[in-house]
Amino acid sequence: MLTSVSMQLNGEYIETLIEGYTTLDVSKQELLSVEQKTEEIGIADGSKFKYRRYEDREITVEFAIEGKTRAELMTKLTKLNGVLNVNDAQLIFNDEPEVYYVGTIKGTPTVDFIIGISSDNAVATGKFTFLCSDPFKYSVIEHEAQQSVDDPTTIVLDYNGTYKSYPKLEVDFYSEEDSGA
After folding, report:
1. Residues 6+ positions from 34 with CB-CB distance below 8 Å
2. 63 and 126 Cβ atoms separated by less than 8 Å
3. Tell me: the pLDDT tens digits for 51-64?
4. Which of 27, 36, 51, 76 could hold 60 in an S-S bridge, CB 3.0 to 4.6 Å?
5. Which residue pairs, CB below 8 angstroms and at least 24 apart, start in 168-177?
6. Exposed e or buried b for every residue in 132-155, given b needs 16+ CB within 10 A?
7. Is the pLDDT of residue 144 over 90?
8. Rounded to an integer, what distance in angstroms lies between the CA atom of residue 65 and that of residue 73?
9. What does pTM read for this prediction?
10. What is the pLDDT of residue 159?
């Protein structure tokens, strides 16, 4: 069963890979942390601005996982470790299906507590964190540039982003004779 914050990891939901796994909550650091560097100049008041940069983003996922026995639960937790053992994974969340992040697991998933360790039910909750050294979100959809209606010699690219973009452009030139028109 998928939740509103379920995560696709390289195109697959963990819920479909591990029976009994559920995503409970996600913290994506919606506002990025900014590092600013200034330099004091002699005895002048204030300082001189040198640069600013966005710091890494951390995405923390809280989860629950259940098994019929403690042994089954431990097997599922081991499988979860294997599923999360990826570098530069594409992360897509159900509450933002139009964008993805790129992250690598940071540390080891923690299990906060185990409930009902009887012979017929075992549930663990915990969390894991992905480090996104590239802190930005990227569009899942590729955008195709179109010729401007007002000026046929101009191609307009507007991705509606909030940060400078350096798109990769691919251009194919052909004549109307080549297209059969």
Report:
1. 52, 53, 54, 55
2. yes
3. 999 999 999 999 99
4. 27
5. 169/145
6. beebebeeeeeeeeeeeeeeeeee
7. no
8. 7
9. 0.78
10. 66
Both tokens of residue 101?
């992040």
pLDDT of residue 150: 84
- pLDDT at 22 (0 to 100): 96
C-alpha gyration radius of the chain: 23
Q: Where are the alpha helices (DSSP H) in the chain?
A: 14-17, 70-84
Over range 129-137, report the average pLDDT. Answer: 94
Residue 79 burial (CB count, 10 A): 16
- Residue reference for tokens 């690219």: 157
| CB contact at 8 A, 139 and 159 | yes
The runs of H, that is alpha helices, within 4-69 are 14-17
Say how many residues make up the chain.
181
- Residue whose C-alpha is closest to residue 157's, from 141, 140, 144, 172: 144
Identify the pLDDT of residue 178.
63
Give the Cα separation of 109 and 147 in Å (integer): 49
